[in-house]
């Protein structure tokens, strides 16, 4: 077998992009005791999906290590992680295509493998390997999808026009699916999934292989669907797409290593909010030392220039005035401060490192991966 590439499995160049040291490539011992996450619904709203202690094995291989999460209606939940982390398996369990080896899964409060037809039709599923009929044109493909669900002819005609426009295939409406490029076929699959206007969308890597501009358009469309009351579960390997989700489950090696809103994940990863500070002159080491002592300061790092610092505080909103006061007193004022928002690649690498440190009992102080994360929606 070929040796694993350095860096995070599936993201061999993550460390290069972020400058953050990758975890070892050796098999992770920490996968044995998974953290638990609960995403409770607000105000007693019925859950669309619920996973309780879900383990999935294929033969002897454990591919999901006890997932706990739930999906309330009206949100976009992103399941984000590298290839092989268990995204498709999670989605298939959610839809009753697989049964859990232990634990329980419900969809609309029921066993997903025994859903009534009326509930099944509420689901729009785009598998990762959506198969299109190569001889049907793009438009015929959508009409065919409509006929499977008994969408009336007139409605199907209007919807197929709208959906072709949404996925930017209007000009290709007459081209046969077999002649479309990979990215175009993916977009056509997405349109076919949306044809019967389901209220729960499960999309397995809908943006894979699609150019960045169109990915933004697709995410905009998905958010519109959410705004019209639909619930979406969307998987992706593009970590930056976390930004488009209401809540995110970060998965790695069959475990949820972090869960929350994009802002919560940033906060968990960095231990607070970061800002870049530039002063009039080089920062004295004693000033930096006093800064580190302040109770609201989490971390202080030097930058390339001697007059710059990157400071992490517990909360930007609360602590910014205090920080400004400190620089007024200690550094003659004139501090320029600007929030620094780390990239999601950086966040992901930090969270993987935290999960690993927490499992090995060498937590660096702000990893929270071993405790239940409660997300109030
Ligand atoms: P992802 O969608 O995140 O790429 P998958 O859920 O497809 O990940 O796969 C997770 C792990 O489970 C991988 O190691 C994969 O090889 C394994 N796996 C998935 N499906 C099967 C299956 N039907 N039989 C055996 N192993 C599987
Ligand atoms: Mg997959």
> Could you estimate the helical fraction of the residues in percent?
25-40%
> Which structural category fits the helices and strands?
alpha/beta
Which ligands are bound? adenosine-5'-diphosphate, magnesium ion
Placed side by side, the strands forming the largest sheet appear as 6-7-8-4-9-10
Low-confidence stretches are: 1-42, 362-377
Kindly give the count of domains: 2
Taken as a percent bin, the fraction of beta residues is 15-25%
What's a quick, concise take on this entry?
The protein is 32% helix and 23% strand. It is of the alpha/beta class. It is elongated and about 75 Å long.
What does this structure look like?
This protein has eleven helices and 15 strands. It has two domains: 47-265, 3-Layer(aba) Sandwich (Rossmann fold), CATH 3.40.50.300; 280-334, no CATH class. Helix 4 packs parallel to helix 6 (182-194). The longest helix is centred in the middle third of the chain and has 16 residues, at 212-227. Strands 6-7-8-4-9-10 form a six-stranded mixed beta sheet, sandwiched between helices. It has a four-stranded antiparallel beta sheet with strand order 12-13-11-14. Strands 3-2-5 form a three-stranded antiparallel beta sheet. The protein has helices spanning 14-18, 87-94, 117-120, 138-148, 153-166, 182-194, 212-227, 262-270, 285-293, 316-330, 344-359, and strands at 37-38, 49-58, 61-71, 76-80, 102-107, 123-126, 200-204, 231-236, 247-252, 255-260, 273-278, 297-302, 308-313, 336-340, 373-374. With 377 residues, it is of the alpha/beta class. 32% of the residues lie in helices and 23% in strands. The structure holds adenosine-5'-diphosphate (ADP) and magnesium ion. Residues 87-88, 128, 204 line the site of magnesium ion. Residues 58, 63, 81, 83-89 line the site of adenosine-5'-diphosphate.
């Amino acid at each position: 077998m070929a040796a694993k590439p350095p860096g995070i499995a599936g993201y061999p160049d993550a460390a290069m992009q972020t400058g953050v040291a990758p975890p070892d490539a050796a098999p992770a011992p920490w996968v044995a005791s998974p953290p638990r996450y609960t995403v409770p619904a607000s105000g007693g709203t019925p859950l669309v999906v619920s996973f309780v202690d879900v383990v999935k094995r294929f033969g002897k291989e454990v591919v999901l290590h006890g997932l706990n999460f739930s999906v309330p209606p009206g949100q976009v939940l992103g399941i984000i992680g590298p290839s092989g982390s268990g995204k498709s398996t999670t989605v298939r369990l959610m839809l009753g295509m697989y049964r859990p080896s232990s634990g329980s899964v419900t969809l609309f409060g029921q066993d997903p493998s025994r859903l009534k037809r009326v509930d099944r039709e509420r689901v729009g599923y785009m598998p990762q390997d959506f198969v299109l009929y190569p001889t049907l044109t793009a438009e015929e493909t959508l009409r065919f999808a409509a006929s499977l669900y008994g969408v009336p002819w007139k409605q199907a005609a209007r919807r197929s026009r709208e959906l072709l426009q949404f996925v930017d295939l209007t000009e290709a409406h007459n081209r046969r699916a077999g002649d479309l490029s990979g990215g175009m076929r993916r977009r056509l699959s997405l349109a076919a999934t949306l044809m019967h206007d389901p209220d729960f969308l499960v999309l397995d890597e809908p943006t894979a292989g699609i150019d960045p501009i169109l990915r933004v358009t697709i995410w905009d469309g998905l958010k519109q669907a959410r705004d019209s009351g639909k619930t979406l579960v969307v998987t992706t390997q593009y970590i930056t797409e976390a930004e488009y989700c209401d809540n995110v489950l970060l998965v790695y090696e069959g475990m949820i290593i972090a869960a929350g809103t994009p802002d919560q994940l940033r906060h968990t990863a960095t231990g607070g909010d970061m800002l870049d500070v530039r002063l009039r002159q080089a920062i004295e080491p004693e000033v930096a030392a006093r800064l580190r002592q302040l109770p609201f300061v989490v971390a202080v790092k030097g930058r390339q220039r001697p007059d710059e610092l990157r400071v992490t505080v517990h909360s930007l909103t609360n602590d910014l005035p205090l920080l400004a006061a400190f620089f007024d007193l200690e550094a003659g004022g004139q501090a320029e401060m600007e929030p620094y928002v780390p990239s999601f690649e950086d966040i992901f690498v930090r969270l993987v490192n935290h999960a690993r440190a927490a499992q090995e009992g060498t937590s660096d102080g702000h990893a929270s991966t071993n405790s239940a994360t409660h997300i109030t929606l």
